[in-house]
Design a protein that fits this description.
Blueprint lengths: L9 E3 L2 E3 L6 E5 L7 H14 L3 E5 L3 H13 L4 E4 L4 H9 L4 E4 L7 H14 L3 E6 L5 H7 L3 H17 L5 E6 L3 H12 L7 E2 L7 H17 L5 E2 L7 H14 L8 E4 L10 H11 L8 E5 L14 E5 L3 E6 L2 E7 L3 H11 L2
Parallel strand pairs: 3-4, 3-10, 4-5, 5-6, 6-7, 7-8, 9-10, 11-12, 12-13
Antiparallel strand pairs: 1-2, 13-14, 14-15
Helix pairs in contact: 1-2, 2-3, 3-4, 5-6, 6-7, 7-8, 8-9
């Protein structure tokens, strides 16, 4: 299997993708792209949250032209999402897109694809081959059915179209809403192709269900060394996609995004309002970017010992608690001062 360290490196604006580069977090706007002011406002919110590549749909000429104004007001690479009209792909590149997302088989033939590739080559703009279950070639469906093999073969076929035109700045996505189907399709593709992979579970659902579904699928792929960029697709504010993506990458040990909290689920030994304490601690330290692990534990049994891997932590008792560092008790602290003591210790931590 060709893992992320061995994939081809592709430059998307100022962000390198593949070849062992850090896994980049993407999202997509849900504003009308032609409304450049609303789109810029949303992208800026996404930038602040940590989005590193942004995609906008380009369903018409007005949207393609709006990319120029949008590009001037943002600080991250801009990807144009094209579905059927090759002319919009060309227009998007002419108006500042750093990458285009197409399904080559949907553009109306090799001649039209060649026109798109010609402009992409001239402007050194990469192309993402985007395959999903809803746009599979009829011949592939007849041969393989709606399977992971069909998805992977579609991606390989579309990549071959671009290679025949001597184009190689390619990123590939193979998306499905079913976790096991999506994972297997990526695995099959990665057996024989070294282009960087944009991974995600498409149409994952609302924030709660979609976060779980995405964590499952992306977690498996990341564990296998697959994935050079990713998106968590959620029905809701796209800023939430960035937060979930960061958590997934953080918990998989791929990148660090501020404090990681661990806390016990509480039990009958708990003599402190740990649920409230844990929530207040997370809120109080939300803006801290230090890549450390903080434990909020309910009793001394699950305190310094079981949370030894934490850099800092507190363990509740009756009317008081322990403040500890890397498993060693620093001091006892009255219950009403525990949170402040923890925050102060985090701020001092180096």
């Amino acid at each position: 299997m060709i893992t992320r360290e061995k994939t081809r490196r592709v430059q998307i604006g100022g962000v390198a993708v593949g070849g062992g580069a850090p896994i980049a977090i993407q999202s997509m706007t849900n504003t009308k792209t032609a409304d450049s002011k609303a789109t810029v406002a949303q992208i800026r919110r996404l930038e602040e949250a940590g989005c590193e590549i942004i995609r906008c749909t380009v369903p018409d000429q007005e949207s393609a032209e709006a990319l120029e104004a949008i590009k001037k007001e943002i600080h991250i690479p801009l990807v144009a999402d094209i579905h059927f009209d090759y002319r919009l792909a060309i227009a998007a590149m002419e108006h500042g897109a750093d990458k285009i997302r197409i399904n080559p088989g949907n553009l109306g033939g090799r001649e039209r694809l060649a026109k798109v590739v010609k402009v992409a080559k001239e402007r050194q703009i990469p192309i993402r081959v985007g395959v999903n279950g809803g746009s599979l070639d009829k011949a592939l469906l007849k041969q393989y059915g709606h399977t992971a093999e069909a998805l992977a073969m579609s991606a390989l076929q579309n990549v071959a179209y671009l290679e025949e035109l001597d184009f190689h700045d390619i990123v590939v996505s193979i998306k499905a809403s079913e976790v096991s189907l999506c994972v297997k399709a990526y695995e099959i593709f990665a057996q024989s192709c070294a282009y960087p992979l944009h991974i995600g579970i498409t149409e994952a659902g609302t924030v709660a269900d979609g976060s779980i579904k995405s964590a499952l699928g992306l977690g498996i792929l990341l564990h296998e060394g697959l994935g050079d960029t990713l998106r968590v697709s959620l029905t809701g504010d796209p800023v939430k996609e960035i937060k979930v993506a960061q958590k997934i990458l953080h918990f998989m040990g791929e990148r660090k995004f501020g404090i990681e909290f661990i806390s016990c689920p509480t039990c009958g030994r708990t003599n402190i309002d740990l649920i409230d304490l844990a929530e207040r601690a997370q809120a109080a330290l939300a803006g801290v970017s230090k890549p450390i692990k903080v434990a909020i534990m309910g009793c001394v049994v699950n305190g310094p010992g079981e949370a030894r891997e934490a850099d800092l932590g507190i363990a509740g008792g009756k009317g008081e608690g322990l403040l500890f560092k890397k498993g060693e008790v620093l001091r006892k602290v009255p219950e009403d001062q525990l949170l402040n003591a923890l925050v102060e210790e985090v701020m001092r931590y180096e």
